[in-house]
Amino acid sequence: MRIHILQHESFESPGFILDWIGEKGHQLTFTKFYEDGMLPLLEDFDWLIIMGGPMGVYEEDKFPWLKLEKEFIKRSIEDRKIVLGICLGSQLIAAVLGAKVYPNKFKEIGWMGVSLTENSRQNFLFSSLPVRMKVFQWHGDTFDLPAGAVYLAESEACKNQAFMYKENVLALQFHCEVTENSLVEMLEAGKNELKKELYFQTAEEILSRKDLISSNNKMMRMLLDKLEILSKI
Question: At the topology level of CATH, where does 2-231 sit?
Answer without folding.
Answer: Rossmann fold (3.40.50)
